[in-house]
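Tokens as discussed.
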């Protein structure tokens, strides 16, 4: 049995990772502010913890270059209120954002690979 801790499983990348890891050989420890009832119904191999990780200092800095609802909010913000909105729009327009589904596929492939089990550190997916 392999155990996985996945955060943000109520939607987006966390949900996609959890769905791809559902297996009789895997036990998932899911953390998110809101419980994903549909996900929980798909497997008895899930323990769910309702927790807001924003309560922990600096956790929110661990964002990536993938398209999220936060990215969408940043792109739609008035540039007088959020000066970086133009940058967020350029990144999106240039196709630099990857979908949560694509990132989940790559991360699951890495997690299940022999490389991960041997402890090799990967800096790029």
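Sequence:
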């Amino acid at each position: 049995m392999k155990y996985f801790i996945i955060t943000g499983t109520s939607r987006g990348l966390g949900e996609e990772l959890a769905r791809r890891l559902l297996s009789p050989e895997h036990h998932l420890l899911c953390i998110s502010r809101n419980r994903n009832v549909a996900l929980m119904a798909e497997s008895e191999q899930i323990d769910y913890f309702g927790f807001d990780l924003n309560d922990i200092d600096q956790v929110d800095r661990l964002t990536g270059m993938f398209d999220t609802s936060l990215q969408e909010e940043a792109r739609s913000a008035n540039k007088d209120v959020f000066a970086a909105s133009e940058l967020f729009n350029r990144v999106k327009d240039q196709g630099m954002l990857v979908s949560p589904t694509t990132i989940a596929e790559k991360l699951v492939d890495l997690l299940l690979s022999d490389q991960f089990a041997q402890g090799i550190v990967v800096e790029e997916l």
